[in-house]
Request: fold
Amino acid sequence: MVTVRVDGLRARYGGKLALDGINLRMGAGIHGLLGPNGAGKTTLMRTLATVARPSEGSVELLGHDTAQQDGRKRARRRLGYLPQTFGYYPGFTVAEFVEYMAWLKEMPKDRVPEAVERAIERVGLVDRAGSKLKKLSGGMLRRAGIAQAIVNDPELLLLDEPTAGLDPEQRVEFRGLLRDIGSTNTVVVSTHLVEDVAIACDEVTLFDGGKLIFRGTPNELAELGTFGADDARGGDTTLERGYTAALRAYRERAVA
Ligand SMILES: Nc1ncnc2c1ncn2[C@@H]1O[C@H](COP(=O)(O)OP(=O)(O)OP(=O)(O)O)[C@@H](O)[C@H]1O
Reply:
């Protein structure tokens, strides 16, 4: 089932196109968004989260047309979003923060306490549930951010650089959580880390300069790198070389 349907999406900041003619379909599973700085990943995430409005094109989420106010409202109740940088009240505890976000998502009141407890447990922060956010380490704060994103059991989960600041053990646990959620729901993860994509994602979408330049499985991206195995500049793994090869091929085509 298609849960994300994007057609002819353009996003402009002033005169600059941050996303240029994006067409995309996604369903259940884990989808990785890759690309160099400024490729447009965060802009796409913000658009899917309905925080940013497209300059052109249409975005349908879980069957709701986000051009309509009512469609955005309905979609928001069913999605979870971890922004790259997120605002919070530093004096809130982890539990208060997750509860507050559940309230913003208009969750039924009687479901909130159990949902908050479960979300905090799933990110491994039970022993810090009563700690103020300002006292948390960067990795713990990010886990609190993930907890608020999943508190409503979102059918569409959008995570912008979720592994930034997580240590290796937390990364492994986080990937387990992603697999769990991605087995039935749509998860979109933006990352700089090619290895995160290799291990966790079912599908990779690569962007450069606001354009979608590759879509396929991690294996298909890695295959692009097998021809440059002796070219150390392309990366240390076949996936890194595939990533570099896809970017180079696109840039060569764009110049020609
Ligand atoms: N608020 C803004 N005002 C003006 N330009 C912006 C704004 N936000 C993003 N841009 C521009 O839009 C383009 C896409 O940026 P975006 O943050 O979506 O890329 P990204 O792939 O997430 O990059 P990064 O990997 O560095 O986070 C860039 O050229 C960026 O400079």
